[in-house]
Amino acid sequence: MRAFALLALLAAHACSTPPRSPTVEPATWELAGTITWEGHFRRPHETRTIPATVRVQRGMARLRIDLAETWASTRPASTTTFVASEREPGCRVRPPGAAAFTCERAGEAGDRLVALLRASDDPAQPAMVRRWQHPRLGDIADRAQWATTAAGPELHVVWHRDHDRAELRLRPVGGPTTASPPDDAFAVGEPTLRDRPPVPARFSTLAPGVHALVLPDADTRSLVVEFADHVVLCETSTDNGAGERLLAAIERHLPGKPVRHVLCGHYHPHYTGGLRPVLARGATFVAPQGLAEFGREIAARPFRDPPDALAASGRTAAVEPFAGQWRHADAANELLAVDIGADSEHTDEYVVFVLPRQRLLFQGDLGWFVRGDATQAGGDRARGLLRAIDARQLPIDTLVQGWPTVGRVTMPLQDLRALLAR
Ligand SMILES: [Zn+2]
Fold it and tell me: What would you report as the CA-atom Rg of the chain, rounded to the nearest whole angstrom?
């Protein structure tokens, strides 16, 4: 890192032109330390810290970043590669294990990480802070900042993606080299377009009074349970925009039936991300204690610039905690929300939605998944789900799954037992 500052100084002395332009100077520098992820573990704000390295290469008016993460000492590191132009925003991203790069536009996660690291090649650099409005988290900041520690300079990066948040703590490894990286380090082939523009929610009826809403671009399926003069929405998809699309579909397909209660199976972003717009319409969030607390936190997220529907409404979110299970019924329908907790083998609290009159059970991501053309049972999670169904003698014959949205939507309970027994 210091060599960079030195090069800049030398360049400034060598002629009267401005100091070296890092945008054209080929170089490689490496950092090693940890990455801490938050977003998809057993409870809100739980994190996991693992070893990580970052290698930055410059050349061909491009910048390449390899972020290598070691999730288990017995497995090779998984590496995400970002290649960006030095002149234009946006970048190409190759996820771990993928053969091809995909395109990301300006402002997307890869572009923001590249901007942070590009501005941080020297410990003397001031902090780089980029404030923006995340469609689920609200007004937040990505940042990169050098700190002086007893062990030397340390780069601290805070980076938000669509569905998680990462913090990197990295120290320089060796010194930067000024030798040009090979040209093919910057080749991205024919990147695939990942563009999946938002489309209206797909509405379908699973059984009398029980409807599904799928947002294909978000890869989420929500459940709408219809009562005499209102509906209950279960699972709110990924973010504010997705939540608005769910509400628009309910207004279109079930006019005159407002969402009176909203529930989420578990705290992960694909289930709780669209809660705010539903709360803005006056629905009550019903959840087990921990998830109810998380709902209050979601309602308190800063959406000031600009205000979202909840912030603009001025409403205090209505939250109703329950323990064990919550029953809601009228002459038209009946819904039982059951917290199966640790039986989910996924999160500390996990709500499944039982429709006793239709003998259906809707669950988010426990039952099965599709590999190639084959449907496979969800291992420990599926076993835990069956354990919870049997222990409570839940009155159901058929399972409905929220995620993934591709592959099977429903499965007879007996078929899941058979699949697990294989
Ligand atoms: Zn999950």
Answer: 25
